[in-house]
Amino acid sequence: MPQHPLHLPIYTLNKLCLAPHIFTIAQIFSFLFHKMPNQDICSYLTEPRLVTRKFLARPQHEGVGAVVRRSIGRFELKYFDPFLVLDEFSVSAPAGFPDHPHRGFETVTYMLQGAVTHEDFEGRKGTIEAGDLQWMTAGRGIVHSEMPAAQGTQKGLQLWINLSSKHKMIEPRYQEMLSKDIAETVVDGIKVRVIAGEALGIKSPIYTRTPTMYLDFSLKPGAHLQQLIPKSWNAFVYILEGEGIFGNQKSQPVTSHHILLLSSGDGLEAWNKSSKVLRFILVGGEPLGEPVVQFGPFVMNTQEEVDQTIDDFENYTNGFEKARHWRSESAINLDY
Q1: In what order do the strands lie in the sheet with 254-255?
Q2: Which residues make up each annotated binding site?
Q3: H or E element: which one contains 312?
Q4: 139, 93 in Cβ contact below 8 A?
Q5: Are 227 and 280 in contact (CB under 8 A)?
Q6: How far apart are the C-alpha atoms of 302 and 299, rounded to whole Å?
Q7: Spacing of C-alpha 199 from chain mean position
Q8: Model confidence over 258-291: pLDDT tens digits?
Q9: Is the peptide bond before 82 cis (omega within 30 degrees of 0)?
Q10: Residue 168 to residue 103: CA distance in whole angstroms
Q11: What is the pLDDT of residues 22-39, one digit of tens each?
Q12: Pirin N-terminal domain location, by residue (predicted)?
């Protein structure tokens, strides 16, 4: 006789499905007592998201000598509310991203290989190593640099997330996590690192001012993932390595460096039918539904606000005061 579902441990319920979900008592009883062969309780995805658009992120030059594969923020996809930019970057010294400003959004840096040194005009300095995360809220203004901290090629992802009008001028803040502190688990051939949000029963402590999920999945050959996504959110997949099938089992496999925009629905299904590991990020966010006016690293709601931001930066006012006498150590040493 199966254990009474009300007494099932949380871990057991999580094992029943590859994403957090609230089951009704009727659903649990139906699964435990009336489950037919090959029936899967994970059929709670009543409206799986499909792939609506697909782009290959091609290499382009950015910063000083750096190479990025830009998938959001390119001419075909200027903005995917609330996401402004997604870059997969590759940089070797002395190339990099020397002193530059930001206002009006957040930058999320997630290192895949090597390390970069981060400095800002508040005197903060640190190294973001492979697997580490830096979630930087630029708010009313930051001037900083991001430069290689090791020999060879440094690789990572940088995501820009827009802030709502009421948050664009908040004070800057950082949330940083070492690789060893990022929530991680493995279930049925699926490994997930939870950068933001939750998956497979674990949750990230990162606070997202613009509600966001950011999940790093690795699927072994034969693995099948179902992951809930809030219905009202926009979501996309970016493939880091391997090839996978997304949204519909009959779809053609998609390979690395592609971004997949997902339709509306309650979650994502993905399959790894290849002989190698499939690794991808799944990112979703609540759309802001506000006008966007962007001038490079400044993202506001109106042209007047952008003009004021440029004036503030050029005159070292309204959040940029400390930029007047600041240069990063990297800029001084490399004479940028």
Answers
A1: 224-228, 267-271, 243-246, 254-255
A2: 100, 102, 144, 146
A3: helix 303-314
A4: no
A5: no
A6: 9
A7: 14
A8: 999 999 999 999 999 999 999 999 999 999 999 9
A9: yes
A10: 7
A11: 444 444 444 444 443 333
A12: 68-161
